[in-house]
């Protein structure tokens, strides 16, 4: 069967508009399409391919587990899931883990747990969930409602209730709305889709204090910021603030679908048998790959190198910007970076993405005004240099029309 990009329009639902080429093979931070053209990957599958494409140790873990056990259902447990859960609890504040298949599912579990915990401990009147405008927490109806972008949640009928939004980094706005009725505050410790926005120190510590004051759980959505992305295993570790619930996915499986919700033993008690579940959650294949990815990433060597590479990228963007004057600032932390376009290029982020693709570079956008980069944490200096050269040519094309 000959597979072409045109086939997408014939057989797939039209909710995506993928690039005109079809990638067929990847190695490290390089990708090849059907024609054999080579691309450098600064997108990382949207912060997923934490160790690049086809990392030999992840491939080996998948092959090894693939010869043993694929699926059981949660009538049974399995060794890879237990090992991964033990390593996650050893490495974080958490004492209990719930496995799912995606970030949205991990967030769905976190929100359901927060509501159930409040009901068990304080009564049914404590049901308000507060999150932040331009936040993103997934595409299930509950998570998209909690996410602060109406464009994603409108048009599907009545939304889940008792969900309210305030501006990110506006502590006074949160103070005005939080109360003893609040069961949870959900936030990204580094907003991704919303434009690569870091929290101020005052804000993130203030959110924690307000949650404590009102017996509300603090949920950190670390689906995009977790597993080494910021140069810490999880972003909360660099902020001096510990959440009550943390969600992780994307990079956790290094490209194999998996999500997890992490919390304390006390809070987890509200997920009694039968309250929540997932057919595939804790799948042996996914957990085996994720365990290996976690082992590799959670080393000082890899995490420190993320911080070094951040500076390499920032220096490269600064040099490009000195020539072409397109960015107002470069935001973000570690290897989750966003070039925020200045007033002359407002609304044109996608043009930069398209131009980059033409120069054989894969990158992302975060809204209409930010070009987003989330490469593999182990991307080589050589690939960074070549990718930046390609990006410079793309910028030149946009600037010169």
TrEMBL record:
Cofactor(s) the record lists: pyridoxal 5'-phosphate
The protein's assembly and partners: Homodimer.
Family membership: Belongs to the class-III pyridoxal-phosphate-dependent aminotransferase family. ArgD subfamily.
Binding-site list for pyridoxal 5'-phosphate: 103-104, 136, 221-224, 279
Signal peptide boundaries: none
Keyword Transmembrane helix: no
Any one Gene Ontology molecular-function term assigned to this protein's record: transaminase activity
Note: May also have succinyldiaminopimelate aminotransferase activity, thus carrying out the corresponding step in lysine biosynthesis.
Principal subcellular localisation of the protein: cytoplasm
Name of this protein: Acetylornithine aminotransferase
Record key words, sorted: Amino-acid biosynthesis, Aminotransferase, Arginine biosynthesis, Cytoplasm, Pyridoxal phosphate, Transferase
Free-text cofactor note: Binds 1 pyridoxal phosphate per subunit.
A Pfam family recorded for this sequence: Aminotran_3
UniProt keyword annotation of DNA damage present: no
Tree of life domain: Bacteria
Gene3D superfamilies named among the record's database cross-references: Aspartate Aminotransferase, domain 1, Type I PLP-dependent aspartate aminotransferase-like (Major domain)
Modification N6-(pyridoxal phosphate)lysine, positions: 250
List of residues binding N(2)-acetyl-L-ornithine: 139, 278
